[in-house]
Amino acid sequence: MATGRPCIVISDEEQGYDLDLFCIPKHYVNDLERVYIPHGLILDRTERLAREIMCDMGGHHIVALCVLKGGYKFFADLLDYIKALNRNSDRSIPMTVDFIRLKSYCNDQSTGEIKVIGGDDLSTLTGKNVLIVEDIIDTGKTMKTLLQLLKRYNPKMVKVASLLVKRTPRSVGYRPDFVGFEVPDKFVVGYALDYNEYFRDLNHICVISESGKEKYKA
Ligand code: IMP
User: Fold this and answer.
1) What are 192-210's pLDDT values in tens digits?
2) Distance 87 CA to ligand 1 centre (A)
């Protein structure tokens, strides 16, 4: 593990929670198996990550780079917690935000080709301390490609925060600096993570059902 800090590890045996125990939008109840990570737990873990980021990157201006679209919820909540720390402690970090949009997935499979399909001009990152905020590291290919791309713009420092990291034999071995949860090799949706653009409008992170995959297939 490249990161020195532990994260919450969700074991392969973890079954999650029955959907009936939580509030799920009616339009998704037949498309999901289980609630895997409830929204409240995501927020509590994110609050702690904000503290760790402040500790490691504090003292310098940070450019927080949101990887769209999947990273937008984590990005917004993480920045809210960093802002709360900035308001309430003696030390504070000025922060600006940037956005990049990447696409590599169709259905639940990586296409193997990572495309930058929008976002800000990356030359603004030259000489800056950059915090990349991503939803999930699966094989790690997307992040490795993005890090290579950023290198061309000579940032002063680059750190990566990912809400989730998947335990998968397809991993290229990449591990981010800050990780919320390590999850089994299952396709998860919700909290802005999508399946062909669906399920971003779901608060909890859930496992999609086979019928859900079929219904929203591209
Ligand atoms: P990687 O290049 O294989 O690491 O894939 C990373 C990207 O794939 C993420 O930014 C997501 O957009 C997408 N992805 C991978 N696994 C999942 C998943 O379980 N749910 C939703 N999106 C996923």
Assistant:
1) 999 999 999 999 999 999 9
2) 33
